[in-house]
């Protein structure tokens, strides 16, 4: 079984606390696992050079998860070695006034990758189902409509050349408590504190329920969901990096054909 199969969402999805702490790829040696993450991150960076040179492929990586699940850490640990020329990271926050005056996918569509680009979404269009559903701003019928609209949107991206990888960073409620408390206890981490995260934590069960529904409804062959155990930051990065490398390897990337005329040119 490859890593993509191992972490592919199972249906019906059950996000149990115990699964958040699983480490199926771990060697049992944390330092060895970190070294493996570094190796894979460097391979991604090497592939990206060819990816950018080809200028014909597009890769979209979507990171979703509860607060403190490690979306920022994944960007740094897995994608931090990429050349800024061919990669973008987009962090979606609460919609602006201008964005609210358009359909909810408008701000997302304009950020998808162009040819030769790898784009990472730190949160995404899924926030436009999850947050309003949890807070009762949309009903079940509207949720169903948005799930279908998202599937249609992602299918359109796939049919026009975008490879899509969607990662749900699965942490336990206890692990989130520890991470939030660590931020509060360390003055140097107070810049990370958002008191709204504490309020959203009160809706933990509702978020988990709606994540299960959203993943079940939008997991497709062209835009698959991968559920990544994320209580361990190192294992989280190891799993995601492994899947990204497998995906890039499957593309059989190659530099564009050489121009024989260039070999005759001598620069004076």
UniProtKB/TrEMBL annotation:
Organism from which the protein derives: Noviherbaspirillum denitrificans
InterPro entries assigned: P-loop_NTPase (IPR027417), Polyphosphate_phosphotransfera (IPR016898), PPK2-rel_1 (IPR022300), PPK2-related (IPR022488)
Domain Polyphosphate kinase-2-related: 29-252
Family membership noted in the UniProt record: Belongs to the polyphosphate kinase 2 (PPK2) family. Class I subfamily.
Coiled-coil parts of chain: none
Region called Disordered, residue ranges: 1-31
Protein name from the UniProt record: Polyphosphate kinase
GO molecular function: polyphosphate kinase activity
Database matches in PANTHER family: POLYPHOSPHATE:AMP PHOSPHOTRANSFERASE (PTHR34383:SF3), POLYPHOSPHATE:AMP PHOSPHOTRANSFERASE-RELATED (PTHR34383)
Record carries keyword Transferase: yes
Domain of life, per lineage: Bacteria
Membrane-traversing stretches: none
Cited NCBIfam families: PPK2_rel_1
Sorted UniProt keywords: Kinase, Transferase
